[in-house]
User: Fold this.
Amino acid sequence: MYSIKYIPLISILVFTLASCVGGVRDISCEDDPRCIIYGITSDILILDPHVSDSIESGIIFRQLYDTLIYRDKSGSFVPGLAQSWEISEDGLEYTFFLRDDVVFHDGTPFNSQSVAISIDRIFDPNLNSQNARLLLGAFSRYEILDDFTIRFYLFEPYIPLLDGLSQPYLGIVSPQSVAEYSPLRYQYHQVGTGPYRLDKYLPGERIEMSRNPNYGWAPQIYTFPDGIIIERIEFKIISDTSLNTELLIDGEVDIVDEVPPPDARNLSNNSELFVLPVDIPGQSVVFYFNMLQEHTDNPIVRRALLHATNRIAISDKVYLNFSPVAWAPLSGSTQYSHTGYINQFPFDLNESIALLESAGYVDTDGDGFLELNGSKLELDMLIPPWGQLPQVGDFLREQWRAIGVDLIINPIPGFNSLSNRIQSGDYNLISFDVFGIDPSLLTPIFASNANNNVIGYSNERLDDLIRQATQERDEFTRRSQYFQIQSIIMDETLILPIRDYVNIVASRSWISNLQFDAYGWYPLLYDARININ
Assistant:
């Protein structure tokens, strides 16, 4: 499904690993060559897999917890805590056959009851587990068939269920630990079955964990290469994201991600460093048009803006061609991405000007900006600080000035401010990211009754297709439905696609086999190795 909740909780991440060699360390990893420090740049409100929905917390959960199933690099579902599963013909029953050799970090045996307790916890009305519940979709109830067999019942078919079960926010927690600690206290005493165990959590400072020596049930997403195994990890919370590349160059950290493209180009020339662009599946980086605001309520204006946008120039100048140009709602690495819209809205100022003239826009006072019935063609764009979006906004302002559009850019400092502005509806364009593999991630934005329908758009045919596509088991039919969904989005010009999201990771060359799971954001640190002569 998707890896964040339906409000714009979009992550800008800096990842930092460090060992004892080189640099100044301020925590206990300093004297352990098998320890790494991994930096995350945003504090976590609550560190609980069934409550949190941020990318940062997902990085933590991927190390501490196992999920019933996983996605491998090809996107296929592979066994996890469930060694196999069966789906009924009507798509309403999912039976999971569990491993019988798994033990939680606290020594509690894993079984069907463990899964049931995690499900009960997610649906506990006293737990704010909105994201975890959404990942379970049409889940209705469960039935324990025996110690290692559990069946899920759905109230309607829901194809993205397996995708949701593969995400770290549905990790299975220790029944003993959640019984002993309140939801608020559990975050300090988390117990899963994953490759690493939680040792200490100091909010706003760091999260410490050590390798699980009993981990004998690793899923096939791991490859077990040669090299020094990472025994301990310390996730350090970093407040100033502008220092990530500088810290890497100074030797104070060993890996960072979300590296700005200019820095990545410079780092590529350093033989002691390794730059790794990682494709992030999900929705393309887009600007959403608000249909409820003047000017952007007109499809002719929206189409004119698409033609007035030189996306190739933006990719070249802002992203230095690290990120592919986006032409459709889903990025190229996402399931059922529609490739039929490549170059369908090419940069063409003459076409853009002609469209605006046909809509009645004229420059009556000679100031270079168009008006319609005395109303200036002024657009309000909300710009968050991540992903080089401020630079993109500057480019758009200059490009659109050439067709008589006055683009007013409003910088938004963070998630909460962006959420508040969305609630107000006071904008013409807005951007935030939604990540995931299954194309059902389009639902919370484009379904008419969705909580996060920031475009104010309603279309019965689109709603029907969205509903059908989440229930359709035939892959060919489902692909066709999502192609139609994307076609409506583009034909109605509901969005302005900019680029496919690529996370640029830079690390020291002695860190080998640094891999990320199929969702792109979550590192498989159990597979990373330290290779120092």
DSSP finds 16 helices and 23 strands in the chain.
